[in-house]
Amino acid sequence: MNPCKLKEPKVINNALLEKCVQEQGPKGEAGRLAQIEKVPLEEVPQIRLEFLNILRIDHLWVLTSLTKLNLNNNLIEKIENLETLVHLVELNLSFNKISKIENLDELANLEKLSFYDNEIEVLENMDFLTKLTVFSIGRNKIAELENVLYLRQFSNLKCLNMVQNPCSETEDFRLFIAAFLPHLVYYEYKLIYDMERELGQEIFGSKLRQLLESEEREREARMQIDKEIADAALHASSFVEYLNTHHLFDSLFLNDDDGKHLLLIEDAKDFYDEYEEQFLALCMQIFENGQEQYRLRTDEIDQFMKCVEDAQTSNQQESIFQKHMEVFIEQKAEVFYKIKGIQKLLNNNEITYEEFIDKCDVLVLEYDKLLHDIWKALMKLELELYEQMEEVNQTFEQSITELVNQFIESSQGYFSQIRDLEVSYAENIGDLALKFQTNATLSEEIVVPEILKPIMSDKDALHNSLATSHDVHMQIIDAREDTLSGNARDWLEDLIDNLMKNEVKRNRGKILEINHFLDIQREEFDDLNAEYAPEPEEVASAD
């Protein structure tokens, strides 16, 4: 074959995959059978696509069962199109031209990963690889020691290779690795001894302590955020999530740069602190009111559900309903006994066939009446229950609607007070800013902070900044009030709709159950008739 042909860049396609599977499959008789049966690509557990001059990772989505993939010694420049290989445990991308680690988020089961001999400068985008055990990143372009610290998050990482990176050429790099990666067992495939770890901790002790303190602060901050998120999820049922924290107040100034800059004016911080204290107090009142109202709604729902359960169980199924069923079963057994009796009389020639038919007709009419009577009785009970449930639902709807409206109205009162606080704060800051601007204009001794100069350039600019800041604050407060009211009303609407839907569903199910029961009773009667009623030919031959 032409050697130039071998060096041509290739793309991954079905033909290439099937060829590799065949070449890498079992040999001998097992290989011959595998070639005949052709293992489906979606069942292939591992494949080597090495030394093929592949330019781009593609068309691997067909290998859904793949656990091991070798793409080393190719011309790949970008990591891509691996998101479907969720079962992948081992990935080898050594000896390529990759410059950035990316698109690995879906490979959560990855344990072994190699980027040996590429062009990577930064360790990043690997946060989801929590099972990573072996990582080879030697012969790349990693220069900063901070990249080593990125690997501290991988508690399962036991083996690391970073040889021939710029950072690895620094003095005591192996000791740095030993000190800052306490879970690591092997570096450059050599065991890390306790002595090395202790020496590394001694050399880099100061930096290590600073890092541990920083990580502890970050951990506490994450825990606080996680707690707030968990609390918010819990408090979402009471529609007051985050109102027991600084969240709403902080959001006022989050994107309000002018509002934050104005706090540089002398005495502005005093107004801010007072505003914050009163604002948070009102938020806490909304929160506590929301929790109390939630308990009241929960009690109301519990009482309603108990009432419904009592109505459906004791009043219907256990007493009256059961009594009707018992009477019907007794009467049905009596009719069936009579049919068997007249059949016996016919068999003993004590009655004629015509008399037998006449008696059967009477029993058919009697049984039809039984079925009709039990149908009427059961449907009457169900109708009574349905009407009773409608009345209970209406009463409950009125009660729960009143509770929700009370909660919304009381919350609106608190939000109105918050808006009053914002108006007062805006006026105080406005007066202070205007006074500061006037004094700064009249006296050169007053130094205007650089960041305040655009705001203080003229009165129009100041008025615009003050108005914009105030409008932003009011919009955020209004939006939180609308969210609370909207969520409460949506919850109420869903609750009432579900009550109606569930009752209609229960009613229809019960009607179907009654009709199905009667169909079975009719079939049993027809089967009995067919079993005991002789054919006319049999009677004629007997005669």
Short characterization:
The chain has helices at residues 3-6, 14-23, 28-37, 146-150, 173-180, 194-203, 205-235, 247-254, 257-261, 268-347, 353-442, 453-456, 459-532, 536-542, and strands at 46-48, 68-70, 90-92, 112-114, 134-136, 159-161, 186-187, 190-191.
Features:
flat; 64% helix; Leucine-rich repeat, LRR (right-handed beta-alpha superhelix); eight-stranded mixed sheet; mainly alpha; 543 residues
How would you describe the overall organization of this protein?
It is a single chain. The chain has 543 residues and is mostly helical. The protein folds into 2 domains: 10-203, Leucine-rich repeat, LRR (right-handed beta-alpha superhelix) (Alpha-Beta Horseshoe); 250-542. Helix content is 64%, strand content 4%. The chain is built from 14 helices and 8 strands. It has an 8-stranded mixed beta sheet. Helix 4 (146-150) links the parallel strand 5 and strand 6 (159-161). Helix 8 crosses helix 13 (459-532) and helix 10 (268-347) runs antiparallel to helix 11. The longest helix has 90 residues, at 353-442. The N and C termini lie far apart (100 Å). It comes from Zophobas morio. Belongs to the DRC3 family. This is Dynein axonemal assembly factor 1 homolog. It holds the Pfam family LRR_9. Keywords: Cell projection, Cilium, Coiled coil, Cytoplasm, Cytoskeleton, Flagellum, Leucine-rich repeat, Repeat.
